[in-house]
Amino acid sequence: MKNLAILLCFICSGAFAQDKKDIRDSEESFIVTYHKEYLAQEMGIRLPKNANLMLFDTIDTWLGTPYQYAGNCTKGIDCSGFVTILFNRVYGKNIGARNSADIYQQLEPINKDEIKEGDLVFFGSSKRRISHVGLYLGDSNFVHASSSRGVIISNLDEPYYKKRFAGAGRWMRDIADSNENDK
Who contacts 164 (Cβ-Cβ below 8 Å, separation ≥6)? Predict the structure, then answer.
């Protein structure tokens, strides 16, 4: 009988621990869901299901920052400075260039239908004349420092950006890393 009581205590304590874990997981899930909904509302877009919350939190702190040519702080920033800061803070990568044309040269070109979160999108009068860069977020949305409106989220399907889209690129080191991992 004593062994049965010990066994029941052991089983119950395991079930209780499992219930606590389920509650904790449920609370974490609720907090993440609430946080994603908050960010989506703040940004006016639908976040991807597996959204990189660090990326979106970082963007949230920069939204509305005014445009300033060659700026690189919250008082004013330009498009290349902004994507450089995002890459550094979110992905831990140093782009090492300070204008959109130079950044474009460092990336592996990708087709528009291959673009995923973290890829860069470029705009200009032609592929030879890159003059603007943004970071792709998903669902055709990208974040950038607009010269007229500061840091905003726009959509590739908007007529202005659709007409000026010059290409997209992925950080070459990411491609090299994924090729190494494939071996």
Answer: 123, 124, 125, 132
Q: Catalytic annotation on 79?
A: yes
Taking the CA atoms of residue 110, residue 111, residue 114 and residue 117 in that order, the dihedral angle to the nearest 10 degrees is 60
Q: Which of 9, 12, 73, 132 is labelled catalytic?
A: 132
pLDDT tens track of the chain, all 183 residues?
454 444 445 445 554 555 555 555 565 677 888 888 888 888 899 888 888 999 999 999 999 999 999 998 999 999 999 999 999 999 999 988 889 999 999 899 999 999 999 999 999 986 679 999 999 999 999 999 999 999 999 999 999 999 999 999 998 755 444 444 445
Q: Tell me whether residue 132 is one of the annotated catalytic residues.
A: yes
Helix or strand (DSSP H, E) at 167: strand 165-171
Tell me how far apart the alpha carbons of residues 138 and 174 are, in angstroms, rounded to a whole number. Answer: 18
**Reduced 3-state DSSP string for 103-154:** HHHHEEEECHHHCCCCCEEEEEEECCEEEEEEEEEECCEEEEEECCCEEEEE
Q: Which amino acid is at 140?
A: S
